[in-house]
Q: What sequence folds into this?
């Protein structure tokens, strides 16, 4: 394992924070996180896969240590996220790449694999998201993202993360502590909140078309793996099955013991990624 390395990349007029794992010059693997998360969510998988790849785990605009939007309506959209992804690849001199995306990161991967990176993404992993979202699942996410909690202590924030992200399934105390460490920021009055711009919730009000990606999905030609949490309220079983029949006719793996979304931390999940990405 080589990493992690914390880097800051100029990207489409913004500063993109990227956690790097592995040696430069190896095949590139981009791991893109979900709506209100950061690239540090992938630490376990990135560490394991860094023996074979240069793993790049960016924080999306408005999240973690990356820049916040100048214009939330224009900047918190898949088109702009794609702009920053392309700039990141240019920065590293990456031509061809593998893409693993959780939730929002999966749909960003869909748009790019169908469009601007169609001939460059060689393997696509979509983690617990489909080309359309059920209203209940989207509403649950929009509600907590748009109303971030504020606490007096990081310990209280960690307890909230454990409750709010319970669908992640069973994870170690070390996982939840790292999640707290990489999710916390101080407010102006010294209290503690989550490390994202609350305006990222505009995704659900101004960019609803970003959440309807069947046309893009049907245009994908790269080999595709879909991972689904068995209890997911974001990727229904029927939609996951349809993804095996349409577009790239993805391989589907259902992961027990979790909902939205599998954290890609277990030996089985990492083995699935390693096997698929090597094919």
A:
């Amino acid at each position: 394992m080589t990493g992690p390395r914390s880097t800051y990349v100029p990207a489409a007029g913004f500063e993109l924070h990227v956690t790097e794992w592995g040696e430069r010059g190896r095949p590139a693997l981009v791991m893109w996180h979900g709506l209100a998360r950061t690239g540090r969510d992938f630490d376990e998988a990135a560490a394991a896969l860094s023996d074979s790849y240069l793993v790049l785990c960016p924080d999306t605009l408005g999240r973690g240590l990356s820049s916040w939007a100048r214009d939330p309506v224009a900047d918190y959209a898949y088109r702009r996220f794609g702009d920053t992804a392309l700039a990141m690849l240019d920065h590293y001199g990456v031509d061809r790449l593998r893409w693993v995306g959780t939730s929002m990161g999966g749909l960003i991967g869909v748009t790019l694999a169908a469009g601007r990176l169609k001939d460059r993404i060689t393997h696509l992993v979509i983690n617990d998201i489909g080309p359309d979202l059920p209203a209940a699942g989207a509403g649950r996410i929009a509600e907590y993202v748009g109303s971030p909690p504020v606490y007096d202590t990081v310990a209280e924030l960690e307890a909230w993360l454990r409750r709010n992200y319970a669908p992640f399934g069973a994870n170690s105390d070390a996982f939840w502590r790292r999640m707290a460490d990489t999710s916390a920021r101080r407010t102006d009055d010294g209290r503690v909140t989550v490390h994202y711009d609350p305006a990222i919730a505009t995704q659900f009000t101004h960019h609803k078309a970003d959440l309807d990606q069947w046309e893009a999905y049907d245009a994908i030609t790269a080999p595709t793996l879909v991972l689904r949490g068995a209890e997911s309220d974001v990727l229904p079983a029927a939609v996951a099955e349809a993804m095996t029949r349409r577009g790239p006719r993805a391989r589907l793996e259902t992961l027990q013991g979790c909902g939205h979304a599998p954290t890609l931390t277990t030996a089985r999940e990492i083995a699935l990624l390693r096997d698929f990405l090597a094919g």
